[in-house]
């Protein structure tokens, strides 16, 4: 096993907070944007909008242009210290592979503190991006040391972790073998490993770390299951090709899990889930500017916007001079903690873009394309959300978007429970934790979810 390298996130956190704070005091000087330029996020049909052509002098671009020549410069820095994560450089050979086909795989040892004894299998496989182009993606399968004594093969929970990051070294697979102090909070993986379940953790942001690109993430998750079934070591893990599968994700992970559940019937009918628990889901990006832009959630909001631009690089033409500099700076490799901490500066996205950009047809199309609800999942689903009807309520992800998703999926014939929970966005991951573990365990053990749709306080299955 390669030597563990300890990296401190403190310096990165301090640097990005200072950087955003400096921008706050003199954004006009830094960006060259016209004085009084309106917020990009405010010009999406949510409020008074400006011209989509305004403020283009710094880039010379029009919305909808092809990607800028410097698009490659804003992609994440490749991983240099572990050759397993080197992506294939032969596009024709990659394209010739089937979705879910293994590219490489390895046995590795987890270095993360707090995980029970397990065998780690990491693999790279072929998948597709949002546009149907072939990509390589990675995932990790953790199998507990304890034998499985239940009926049938060992079940697998697909954990769509909230990666919420821009850097290649921020993925769960990299952290499992290089970052001993990268704790999962709450300890979902450790808890379900203790129950004897295997855990599949896909790196669902893909090779370009396209945070918030839902279609991409859903396809990667589904293809990771296909690839897992092809692992040569699978017969020795207790996991089988017909193992029961369950799916979960919260916050940024809920984007990925929601899209995997929604795409499964059409993209991967061979991958069936016994149930999916999806919480704190940003189902409709159009609702987020009001609650995240210019608030303590702004660091993640801006990062997610940039992640989408990586997947739809023609949108990079919306960046002003300062935005281009930031996109090519070390900030492009930040992980979730410093990105979240940068929200203390409460910046608006207009600092980095020309005003009115989201009035463009391309930007509107990207938001609509990544909005959940257009197709019903086949698997039974539990949606859960911190709600002020219980206590506090989610200050970043409006409950209205989740209840709208509930209504749309139910109207299309899906079986969905909506469970409002106490807390706000961050604490909602904790207050829902016992409920999620029990829900997934019930589905994996063959306890059926009642057909149809219902809204209920969680009291058990």
From TrEMBL:
<dbReference type="GO" id="GO:0004806">
    <property type="term" value="F:triacylglycerol lipase activity"/>
</dbReference>
<dbReference type="InterPro" id="IPR005152">
    <property type="entry name" value="Lipase_secreted"/>
</dbReference>
<dbReference type="InterPro" id="IPR029058">
    <property type="entry name" value="AB_hydrolase_fold"/>
</dbReference>
<dbReference type="GO" id="GO:0016042">
    <property type="term" value="P:lipid catabolic process"/>
</dbReference>
<feature type="signal peptide">
    <location>
        <begin position="1"/>
        <end position="30"/>
    </location>
</feature>
<keyword id="KW-0732">Signal</keyword>
<protein>
    <submittedName>
        <fullName>Triacylglycerol lipase</fullName>
    </submittedName>
</protein>
<feature type="region of interest" description="Disordered">
    <location>
        <begin position="51"/>
        <end position="73"/>
    </location>
</feature>
<dbReference type="Pfam" id="PF03583">
    <property type="entry name" value="LIP"/>
</dbReference>
């Amino acid at each position: 096993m390669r030597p563990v390298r300890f990296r401190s996130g403190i310096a990165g956190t301090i640097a990005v907070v200072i950087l955003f704070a400096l921008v706050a005091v003199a954004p006009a000087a830094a960006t060259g944007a016209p004085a009084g330029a309106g917020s990009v996020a405010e010009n999406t049909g949510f409020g008074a909008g400006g011209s989509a052509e305004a403020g283009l002098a710094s880039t010379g671009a029009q919305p909808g242009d092809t990607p800028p020549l410097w698009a490659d410069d804003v992609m994440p820095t490749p991983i240099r210290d572990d050759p397993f994560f080197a992506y294939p450089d032969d596009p024709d050979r990659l394209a010739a592979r089937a979705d879910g086909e293994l590219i490489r795989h390895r046995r590795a040892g987890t270095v993360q503190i707090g995980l029970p004894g397990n065998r780690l299998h990491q693999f790279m496989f072929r998948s597709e991006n949002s546009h149907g182009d072939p990509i390589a993606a990675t995932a990790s399968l953790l199998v507990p040391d304890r034998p499985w004594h239940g009926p049938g093969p060992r079940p697998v929970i697909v954990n769509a972790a909230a990666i919420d990051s821009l850097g290649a070294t921020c993925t769960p697979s990299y952290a499992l073998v290089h970052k001993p102090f990268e704790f999962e909070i709450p300890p979902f993986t450790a808890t379900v490993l203790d129950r004897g379940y295997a855990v599949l953790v896909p790196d669902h942001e893909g090779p370009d770390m396209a945070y918030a690109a839902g279609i991409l993430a859903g396809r990667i998750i589904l293809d990771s299951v296909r690839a897992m079934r092809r692992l040569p070591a699978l017969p020795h893990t207790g996991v089988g090709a017909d193992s029961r599968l369950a799916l979960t994700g919260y916050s940024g992970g809920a984007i990925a899990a929601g899209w995997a559940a929604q795409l499964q019937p059409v993209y991967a009918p061979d991958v069936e889930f016994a149930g999916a628990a999806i919480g704190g889901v940003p189902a409709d990006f159009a609702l987020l500017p009001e609650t995240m832009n210019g608030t303590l959630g702004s660091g993640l909001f801006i990062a997610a916007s940039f992640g989408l631009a990586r997947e739809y690089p023609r949108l990079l033409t919306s960046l002003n001079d300062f935005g281009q500099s930031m996109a090519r700076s070390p900030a492009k490799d930040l992980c979730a903690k410093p990105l979240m901490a940068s929200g203390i500066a409460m910046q608006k996205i207009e600092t980095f873009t020309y005003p009115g950009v989201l009035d463009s047809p391309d930007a509107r199309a990207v938001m609509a394309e990544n909005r959940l609800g257009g197709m019903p999942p086949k698997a039974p689903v539990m949606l859960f959300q911190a709600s002020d009807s219980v206590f506090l309520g989610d200050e970043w992800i409006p409950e209205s978007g989740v209840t709208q998703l509930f209504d749309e999926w139910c109207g299309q014939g899906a079986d969905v429970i909506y469970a409002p929970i106490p807390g706000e966005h961050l604490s909602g991951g904790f207050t829902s934790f016992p409920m999620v573990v029990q829900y997934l365990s019930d589905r994996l053990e063959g306890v059926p979810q009642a057909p149809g749709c219902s809204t209920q306080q969680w009291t058990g299955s």
